[in-house]
Structure formats: structure tokens, C-alpha cells
Amino acid sequence: MALVTPLSPEHDLETKELAEFFNETLGFCPNSVLTMQRRPAISKAFINLNKAVMANEGRVTSALKRMIAWVSSNATGCRYCQAHAIRAAERYGAEQEQLDNIWEYKTHPAFNEAERAALDFSLAASQVPNAVNTDIKERLYQHWDEGEIVEMLGVISLFGYLNRWNDSMGTDIETGAVESADQYLGKHGWEKGKHDGSKY
Q1: Quick one: which of 42, 59, 89, 193 has the most CB atoms within 10 Å?
Q2: Can you give the residue ranges of the Carboxymuconolactone decarboxylase-like domain (predicted)?
């Protein structure tokens, strides 16, 4: 079970109103947000940051942002965030072939070189120690402008926070996220781990 119990969506009405954003993104309000609202300033600031980071300001699509989030979460090992990211990528129109082959993004023909550069950036930026280097920078600049790179790093950084929050919290994973993860990630061994409501 989770380290801290999520509160009712009715606990803080300002958080509830802001959290409508997640009904589009995921189809439900995440348990992570319901836990954060024990300190409503945190839940509200988090949701506003999430909305800002996920806004489309250039060519970095909503689907690509969620795939960037998945690569980051996969690198850090947070199964909760892996499931949420792949579900959101699905809901934001990622191509079926990309969803089915996200593990092989480096070589699979469903991904183009611009997407590979973005996803390699996510992988390098999510490692400890950080692995962003001159090669990553050069590849990014071949395909993306500086504003778009800022958008990508916003996603990576947001999920750095979420990966630490949810893996430390052992956040119970929601049914909808489990369904998407089983469909797209299960064949590669994804499982709930500590997020199944009983193993923490």
C-alpha cells in the first residue's frame, strides 16, 4: 500500500477544479495528485506546472511529449509513471506502431530521426549521473529549435519529480493506467511492482 493515503477528490475544491486537466490526459485524477493535496499548495503548483509543460508551443506534439515521459520513467524505473505516460501517449494519438514498439525506438522504422534525438535526450537527461553531452546537443539542434528543446527538458524534469514522488510513495496505480501498460508494455515484462496496493 502507498506510503501516504490519497484523499478524496473533494478534499480541496481548487485542486479538484485544476485536476479536470487529467480527465483529458488520463481519464481520471491520478492518486499522486490526491496524495499531494494533503498540502494543497503543492497539488495546485504541480498541476499548473504540468499544464504549462504539456502545452504545445511548437512542433513537439502531445504524443511525443508523453513518449519522452515514458523513456524518462523507464530509465528511472518508475512503473507508475511508465503506465501513465504510455496511457497518455495513447490518448493523445501516438501512432499504434510507435506504442507497440516504444522499447525499440532507437531502431524501429516507426520512429524518425527527430523523434529518436528527442527520446535519446530524454534517456540521457534521466540518468544519474547525467549523460547529456555534445553528441546529444548536436543531434537535437539538427531537428529542433531552442524553445522546443526547453519544452522537452520541461517534460523530462517534470517526470523526474513524478518518478521520485510515485516510486518513493508507492502510489497505488489506477485501473485505466494498468490496462494501457499491460497492452503496450506487458510483453516486455511491465508489472505493477510496489504500485499494486499491497506490496509496500
Answers
A1: 89
A2: 40-120
DSSP 101: T
Give dist(CA 80, CA 163) in Å, integer.
8
- pLDDT tens, 70-122? 999 999 999 999 999 999 999 999 999 999 999 999 999 999 999 999 999 99
Distance of CA 198 to the CA centre of its chain: 23
Peptide bond connecting 30 to the previous residue in cis, omega within 30 degrees of 0: no
Q: Which residues of 11-122 form beta strands (DSSP E)?
A: none
CA distances from 127 to 70, 94, 132, 159 (A): 14, 25, 9, 12
Specify whether the CB–CB gap between 194 and 167 falls below 8 A: yes
Q: How far apart are CA 56 and CA 58, in angstroms?
A: 6
Give the pTM: 0.94
Q: How far apart are CA 88 and CA 97, in angstroms?
A: 15
Beta-carbon neighbour count of residue 11 at 10 Å?
A: 14
The answer to whether the CB of 166 falls within 8 A of the CB of 76 is no
The residue written with cell numbers 528511472 in the block is 76
Provide the angle, in degrees to the nearest 10, between the axes of the packed helices 146-169 and 62-76. Answer: 50
